[in-house]
From TrEMBL:
<comment type="similarity">
    <text>Belongs to the tRNA nucleotidyltransferase/poly(A) polymerase family. Bacterial CCA-adding enzyme type 2 subfamily.</text>
</comment>
<protein>
    <recommendedName>
        <fullName>CCA-adding enzyme</fullName>
        <ecNumber>2.7.7.72</ecNumber>
    </recommendedName>
</protein>
<dbReference type="GO" id="GO:0000049">
    <property type="term" value="F:tRNA binding"/>
</dbReference>
<feature type="binding site">
    <location>
        <position position="137"/>
    </location>
    <ligand>
        <name>ATP</name>
    </ligand>
</feature>
<keyword id="KW-0067">ATP-binding</keyword>
<dbReference type="Pfam" id="PF01743">
    <property type="entry name" value="PolyA_pol"/>
</dbReference>
<dbReference type="GO" id="GO:0001680">
    <property type="term" value="P:tRNA 3'-terminal CCA addition"/>
</dbReference>
<feature type="binding site">
    <location>
        <position position="21"/>
    </location>
    <ligand>
        <name>Mg(2+)</name>
    </ligand>
</feature>
<keyword id="KW-0692">RNA repair</keyword>
<feature type="domain" description="Poly A polymerase head">
    <location>
        <begin position="4"/>
        <end position="122"/>
    </location>
</feature>
<dbReference type="GO" id="GO:0160016">
    <property type="term" value="F:CCACCA tRNA nucleotidyltransferase activity"/>
</dbReference>
<feature type="binding site">
    <location>
        <position position="11"/>
    </location>
    <ligand>
        <name>ATP</name>
    </ligand>
</feature>
<dbReference type="GO" id="GO:0000287">
    <property type="term" value="F:magnesium ion binding"/>
</dbReference>
<dbReference type="InterPro" id="IPR012006">
    <property type="entry name" value="CCA_bact"/>
</dbReference>
<keyword id="KW-0548">Nucleotidyltransferase</keyword>
<feature type="binding site">
    <location>
        <position position="8"/>
    </location>
    <ligand>
        <name>ATP</name>
    </ligand>
</feature>
<comment type="function">
    <text>Catalyzes the addition and repair of the essential 3'-terminal CCA sequence in tRNAs without using a nucleic acid template. Adds these three nucleotides in the order of C, C, and A to the tRNA nucleotide-73, using CTP and ATP as substrates and producing inorganic pyrophosphate. tRNA 3'-terminal CCA addition is required both for tRNA processing and repair. Also involved in tRNA surveillance by mediating tandem CCA addition to generate a CCACCA at the 3' terminus of unstable tRNAs. While stable tRNAs receive only 3'-terminal CCA, unstable tRNAs are marked with CCACCA and rapidly degraded.</text>
</comment>
């Protein structure tokens, strides 16, 4: 039995990046041997075990064979006679197909270290084209390592284009696709993910709505530079789309509710935010009511962040509307309801009176 560190832990150590998760590979062992050593099986599709003390995952070396459509259409074979090289060749990129033994000895049968040094994302073998999920994974790695100067190899991009044209991308589940999209959005250069998808034809297959709205990538890039959260980045990406297109993308990938809501609101109110300085108090109040700033002030703050990112991403020197809208929100939220309650108002009468007080507050704010 031989145990190796594999994949991302080896890659990131060689890049000088922090290593968070470690994938362990076991060569030359059986399920029974692993269990005899106290490892607990957890893998449903192939043998994966939890270490009895650390809880880390250890997988038996395996080979795979395409047996169906989509990223899940594979039959796996794990046995003691599967070699390290056979296991590594089934991986996506050469930079992810390296291993280290317990002494730190590097095993690199597919020249992953050379591709790291050359800043190239290259597939390991032609079997790459059998898994449509790898199109999204490679695009995500391109976004992650763009600050280091990485690019996708031409022959790998050609295989990604082949997958896109095959229709296999349609076999991906919404949940699996969103997981890759979410991780890509949270990278420091998320726009690269969508640029790579566009270059290989995958954007047309997965997100045709975005094909003619790539100017939103500058907004997304700005949001990333400001380290905005996921919902803001998703809303920035969809900002230029029509409401029906925003709804379609939200539903197609089953985006989290927070992301869906903010994207819809940004699509509906972004233009009003851009003209905030000329809005009447009534228009301001209608916008604040729509966002429910009294119970969900952070959502309005996220909306402002998305609008500001769009302005800055398209070359505007600043966005004074941001502070103006924050002030308007504060003015409306600071209206005290208690005097109205003490005056005996209830129900609809209380609601109308409170609305009137908030409108007065916004009039005073606008004049001030």
């Amino acid at each position: 039995m031989q145990i190796y560190k594999v994949g991302g832990a080896v890659r990131d150590r060689l890049l000088g990046r922090a290593v968070s998760d470690i994938d362990w590979l076991v060569v030359g062992a059986t399920v029974e041997q692993m269990q005899a050593k106290g490892f607990r099986p957890v893998g449903a599709d192939f043998p994966v075990f939890l270490h009895p003390r650390t809880g880390e995952e250890y997988a038996l070396a395996r080979t795979e064979r395409k047996s169906g459509r989509g990223y899940g259409g594979f039959t796996f074979h794990a046995s003691p006679d599967v070699t390290l090289e056979q296991d590594l060749i089934r991986r996506d990129l050469t930079i992810n197909a390296m291993a280290e033994d317990e002494h730190g000895q590097l095993y690199d049968p597919y020249q992953g270290k050379a591709d790291l040094e050359s800043r190239i994302l290259r597939h390991v073998s032609p079997a790459f084209a059998e898994d449509p999920l790898r199109v999204l994974r490679v695009a995500r790695f391109a976004a992650r390592y763009a600050p280091l100067g990485f690019h996708v190899a031409d022959d790998t991009l050609a295989l990604m284009r082949q997958i896109s044209e095959s229709g296999e991308l349609q076999a991906l589940t919404a949940e699996r696709s969103w997981k890759e999209i979410e991780r890509a959005l949270l990278e420091s250069e998320p726009q690269v993910f969508f640029e790579v998808l566009e270059r290989c034809g995958a954007l047309h297959e997965l997100m045709p709505e975005l094909e003619h709205s790539l100017e939103s990538l500058a907004t997304l890039q700005q949001a990333a530079q400001q380290q905005q959260p996921l919902a803001v980045r998703w809303a920035c990406l969809l900002r230029e789309l029509e409401p029906a297109a925003i709804k379609a993308l939200n539903q197609r990938f089953k985006a989290p509710r927070e992301c869906q809501e903010l994207a819809v609101l940004v699509g509906e109110f972004a233009e009003k935010a851009d003209s905030a300085l000329s809005l009447t108090p009534v228009e301001l109040l209608e916008m604040l009511q729509k966002f429910d700033v009294y119970r969900r002030p952070q959502r309005f703050e996220d909306f402002i962040a998305a609008c500001e990112a769009a302005a800055l991403g398209h070359g505007q020197p600043g966005y004074p509307q941001a502070e103006y809208l924050r002030g308007a929100s504060a003015a409306a939220r600071n209206v005290d309801v208690q005097p109205l309650v003490r005056a005996g108002l209830t129900g609809q009468a209380l609601g109308e009176a409170l609305k009137g007080e908030r409108l007065s507050a916004l009039k005073a704010y606008r004049i001030g």
